[in-house]
Amino acid sequence: MQERKHRFMKNAFTRLFVLFALLVSTAVCAAQPPSILAQSPGAGAFAMGADSQIRTAILVDAGDAKVVHIAASALAGDMDLVLGFKPAVANEIRAAGSRAIIVGTLDKCEAIKQLVDQKKIDVSGIRGQWETFLITVVDKPLPGVDQALVIAGSDRRGAAFGAFELSRQMGVSPWVWWADVTPDKKDVVYIQNTPVQFGPPSVKYRGIFLNDEDFGLKPWAAKTYEPEVGDIGPKTYAKIFELLLRLKANHIWPAMHDCTKAFNYYDPNKIVADEYAIAMGSSHCEQMLRNNVDEWKKDEHGEWSFTRNRDNLLDYWDERVRINGPYENVYTLGMRAIHDNGMPDGENAGERAGILSDIIGLQRDMLRRHVSDDVTKIPQVFIPYKEVLEIYWAGLKVPDDVTLMWPDDNFGYIRRLSTPEEQQRTGGGGVYYHISYWGPPHDYLWLDTTPPALIWKEMQKAYAYNARAMWIVNVGDIKPQEIGTELFLQMAWDMGRWDVGNINTFLEAWAVREFGAAFAPDIAAIMNDYYLHNFSRKPEHMGFYDKYSIDAVNKDPEFSLIHYGDEVQQRIDAFTDMMNRARAIYDMLPQSKRDAYFELVLYPVRGAALMNLKHLYAYKSREYMRDGRAQAAYYARMAMDAFAQLEVDTAYYNKELAGGKWKLMMSDHPNDLAVFGKVKLGRTKPDDAPGLGISVEGQAKPVTCDQEMCKYNVLPQFNRFLKRTYFIDVFNTGEQDFDWNAKPSADWIVLTQKQGTLGPDTRIAVDIDYSKAPVGDDVAGTITFTGAGREFTVSVPVFNHDGQVDAYAFVQDNGVIAIDAENYFLKKDSGGAAWTAVPGLGRTGAGVVVLPATAPTWPDADTAMKQAPSMEYPIHVFKGGDAELIIHALPTHEIHAGRVLRVYVSVDGAPAAPVEFESSHQESDPVGKQNVQRNMMEGRARISIMPGSRMLTIYAADPSVVLDKIILDFGGMKKSYLGPPQTRARRTM
Q1: CA–CA distance from 673 to each of 477, 539, 616, 729 (Å)?
Q2: Residues 69-81 pLDDT 10s
Q3: Residue 553 has pLDDT above 80, yes or no
Q4: What's the chain's Rg over C-alpha atoms?
Q5: What is the β-pairing status of strands 57-60 and 89-90?
Q6: Residue 487 to residue 480: CA distance in whole angstroms
Q7: What mean pLDDT do residues 789-799 have?
Q8: Is 517 exposed, middle or buried (0-12, 13-18, 19+ CB in 10 A)?
């Protein structure tokens, strides 16, 4: 025992030292893009400001690409916002002694060509690269020009990205227009006299999918921003394309629901896309740039079937390729139904694979005819989305140069990635990812609730498996998905920017840019809490029902009112606190920052909070009505108030925010799901006479007593190693106030309140003074409550064990041991692979994943115990025996078909037992539907544990598994949503 304790303490010190070092290094070394800024005018820095001595013009070659002119004009406007003057954008310099910003591409800008020929700039690092640019200062670059800031792009997008990079480093957010982020004013900005190169990007094609636009983007564009078109037209797309350029994106799948005309219905749309250098594409169900919902007319084209209407289908696709072929496109190959359903041809996956193979071959023939003789040079993707994955697994052979674009499961977990053989394909791999979704088992179209840590974890895995050709993220209406969209695209541009050591700083870095350093830590803390609590249950899923089932009615929340400290009230308190903190910052912000803050922080936080309060208060009202509590009516009113306040907030968003700019952009009831409507309330008419009621934590009903005994009156057992408190509710069954009194049987039973006048319910906390309590494993006391002519007795069981437990041990408590997975005592890395805690991931605040993502699998327990990375958790068991091991993990999928999601578990070095997790690629699978809505899957195994200090060791088996919580249930597990809180000893005993 002493040797074990010595090892624990030694390793604890080492772990704390490493953790401290990691925190320091993370704070100092968080990856950021290269800086072009200088702090002073020295050493030949380029100064920009409103002062006449440092005013500058922007020079763009008349023959350069249209997007370069667009970016230069936007840069001029950004300089006006920051510096207070708007430079002229010209094709030549007319005044001697001028200063200029030269923006252009290597092959189109004569001024840059001249500088290269004169060896005044070195472009060897960017020439021939994809979307790469150089920013450098040049003295005497051209006749009549004293100094120039040169932004040279390897291609048209490279030059545009360079102009917008200068804007960003001046302090202009990419969301300056789309989220009204006002930059801070500056007198002068200095650019260092050192060349800085940006790019090439980590992922070749990076973009967004405007999906499910029905509830915000379409009505806003049609009636507010572009009423002359009455739709999402070229004016709206121009603003979207500018946003993409500011985010260094280059690709889009346009809006495609039946509420919107097809992108190509409006001829100017494709012209605008070309002018902004945005490569056009189409989604998984819109092959060959076609919008089937709008463009396929059954009375004109006939049946949507390749086997029965082949010629019309081929003509339909051929027409689009012929018209759009001259522009930059990425072509989606294959065929599905008219909309998001399976293809109508073939009896099974094998037959459909054969049909799809023929279709793809014919589609590529069209590309040869209309785009390029060398079809392998044309960007093409095949997207095995939903049922198409089964067809691919059935043997479909996709041409080698076509990108395999792997989808997630619609809830942020990638279904599978390229095998080692598939990674050798010249077309490479890609990812289609969701941060917004319409479909089974339940939509989430409203708020941005996908945690940055989950986006990071899944996309770094995809990149590690060579998915680097194309990334698309489904952003719904764009707003309010700003944060998730930006992180996704930042990673696509530069995978090295965020890693496991600094992803937890992303939100603060974002908040610094948008709202300033003074407010950033508090805003980041609010948003971290926002993502944590919405990850455990999205606000759109608070109805706890399956929209796509027959029984599409609201059900009671699964958060417990009575177990583990009252999960319902804890969630209410957490969201109420978030709202209060978010509002306090809003009140302190300058007026110029408030619109952006409302859009990016306050509305999402309040929206999620009010949705939770509506459902949770309604649930309390129903349960308290059943218990006869007069307070039920109060909680019914609170639920109605939350519903009404959300409508008020949304009305402000749509009518007054930014002077009415976003009218009709925000809906608080997308798709009119029942979860957004009014909820069933519990109302009861209290008795006229007062009545005392007592409800005890852990008991399903209020206390009832007769002459012989009381029922439902036993608190959970107190444990000296955890020092937890438990609650007792003192409530009134009538309308009149009355005096009440609580009398403990001994002075070691400590109450936060012993008496009072009861109007509303009163919750008191019960604690134990263990220094005064009798020693023993089954100490008992009581509390007697009196009032309004009634008397109730509550039993107080106490575990005041006189032994000791090891430092940092997780102890058995009320029949369970619970561990948050990141709180391992010791971990052992192996073969370059390691269990790694990722902050912000999971329902407990940090999930544990094996990195790198390309780590091997360990196929059996013996191999794992010898070769796999492991984590050790000291536990202390007071009453041994059989236990069920329950592990909560994120509902990830195996990276390759044929793998099994599992870990191995051993106690004190005994042979390890497998713990497997049930995952599903099928949307109709009941387990999978439940898993994605609660963001958790379970693995279970039976093990036997002897009493005493033990070591629980978890060995990796497959790197896809992300652990969140570990529970040993000796028979005391209670029904709850989040599971028991961890039972870590409070201090060394």
Answers
A1: 17, 12, 18, 35
A2: 999 999 999 999 9
A3: no
A4: 31
A5: parallel
A6: 14
A7: 97
A8: exposed
Distance between CA atoms of residues 285 and 764, nearest Å: 57
C-alpha 959, offset from chain centre: 20
Strand partners, 938: 888
Q: What are the φ and ψ backbone dihedral angles of 924, each rounded to 5 degrees? A: -85, -5
Q: Give the model confidence (pLDDT) of 207-257 as tens digits.
A: 999 999 999 999 999 999 999 999 999 999 999 999 999 999 999 999 999
Q: Which residues contact 178 (CB under 8 A, 6 or more apart)?
A: 239, 243, 478, 479, 482
pTM of the model: 0.95
- Count the Cβ atoms, other than its own, within 10 Å of residue 986: 12
Q: Is the peptide bond before 852 cis (omega within 30 degrees of 0)?
A: yes
Helices 567-588 and 603-626: crossing angle, nearest 10°?
Answer: 150
- Rounded Cα distance between 713 and 700, Å, is 10
Query: Which tokens go with 752?
Result: 């936060």
Identify the CA nearest to 150 among candidates 186, 109, 95, 107.
Answer: 109
Cα–Cα dist 721/800, whole Å: 8
Angle between helices 520-536 and 567-588 (to 10 degrees): 150
Q: Which residues lie below 8 Å from residue 874, measured CB to CB, with a gap of 6+?
A: 8, 806, 808, 809, 810, 825, 949, 950, 951, 952
Q: How far apart are CA 537 and CA 102, in angstroms?
A: 50
**Strand residues in 676-829 grouped as ranges (E):** 692-696, 704-705, 710-711, 718-719, 726-732, 738-744, 749-751, 755-758, 762-768, 776-787, 790-800, 810-811, 816-820, 826-828
pLDDT tens digits for 833-866? 999 999 999 999 999 999 999 999 999 999 999 9
State the Cα torsion 519-523-524-526 to the nearest 10°.
150
HSE, CB side, 13 Å, CA atoms: give it for residue 632: 21
Q: At what angle do helices 452-464 and 520-536 cross, to 10 degrees?
A: 80
CA distance 434 to 313: 29
For residue 977, the model assigns a pLDDT of: 97
Between the alpha carbon of residue 35 and those of residues 38, 153, 182, the distances in Å are 8, 17, 21
The SS3 call for residue 92 is: coil
CA 256, CA 338: separation in Å to the nearest integer?
11
Q: How far apart are CA 565 and CA 552, in angstroms?
A: 30
Q: Kindly list the distances between the CA atom of residue 418 and the CA atoms of 385, 407, 415, in Å, as whole numbers in the listed order.
A: 14, 12, 11
Q: What residues are paired with 913 via a beta bridge?
A: 905
Average pLDDT for the chain: 93
Q: Is the pLDDT of residue 953 over 70?
A: yes
- Distance CA(889)–CA(958), nearest Å, equals 13
> What are the strands of the beta sheet with 692-696, ordered from one edge?
692-696, 726-732, 762-768, 749-751
Residue 813 is given by DSSP the state B
Number of DSSP helices (H) and strands (E) in the chain, helices first: 22, 40
CA distance 711 to 700: 11
Whether the per-residue pLDDT at 12 is higher than 50: the answer is no
